[in-house]
Amino acid sequence: MKKGLFITMEGPDGAGKSTQLHFIKSFLEEKGEKAIFTREPGGTPISEKIRKIILDKNNSDMVPMAEALLYAAARAQLVSQVIKPALERGKIVVCDRFVDSSIVYQGYGRGLGESVNVINDYAVAGCIPDITFLMKLAPDLGKSRIKTENKDRIESENSDFHENVYRGYIELEKRYPDRIVTIDAKGTIEEVSREIGAQLERILKNRNDFQ
Ligand code: TMP
After folding, report:
1. Which residues approach ligand 1 with their CB closer than 6 A?
2. pTM of the shown model
3. What Å distances lie between residue 191 and 23, 172, 187, 188, CA to CA?
4. Distance between Cα 201 and ligand 1 center (Å)
5. pLDDT in tens, 106-140
6. 41-80 per-position pLDDT tens digit
7. Ligand 1 centre and the CA of 162: distance in Å?
8. C-alpha dihedral over 38, 96, 130, 117, to 10 degrees?
9. Cα(174)–Cα(134) distance, rounded to whole angstroms?
10. What DSSP designation does 137 have?
């Protein structure tokens, strides 16, 4: 049986992750790979309920630590119910956001720093992505791509918050150069897909060569 492959998709709000996740889905289907697609926060009934609480704009008094713990709780449930079992069955798992989002949004954005890593060590229980696509887009550009009326509680944060999130992603990119594959999200949808497609070809080839 093939070894599982865990791919995550990261980036600031408005970077175009959802569009490119559709592309990844069709790309893998064409290759005959039956991948499992999931998202954070969410992906299990309990985690989706937690998502609603976290993103609800009425919860404006949620303290940063409660927010970080809720993301981690949703993650613990998803890892244990979906991600780990699928990887153990040799599947490819593609997750829209994962622990890097907590490190940058709660660690850098909310200023919780290292405590976020500690909480999440428990939540992920050793489950670390093999590859992370980082859709890199400056916060002012990302902001202009999201419709004001559709913004959730996190997207509605001020520009300082989103600047810090972006700074966090740049730090992570430096810290994990082998795992994080940076994609320039400024280009057209087709240009970005082409770049992701080329990277996926390489990743699948490596996977096949080593099994
Ligand atoms: P989404 O818009 O990509 O579905 O993600 C929901 C929001 O939650 C997005 O603004 C990023 C934020 N987020 C965090 O702040 N911390 C996390 O750990 C995750 C997974 C998402």
Report:
1. 13, 40-41, 71, 97, 101-102, 105-106, 154-155
2. 0.96
3. 12, 24, 6, 5
4. 28
5. 999 999 999 999 999 999 999 999 999 999 999 88
6. 999 999 999 999 999 999 999 999 999 999 999 999 999 9
7. 12
8. -110
9. 12
10. -
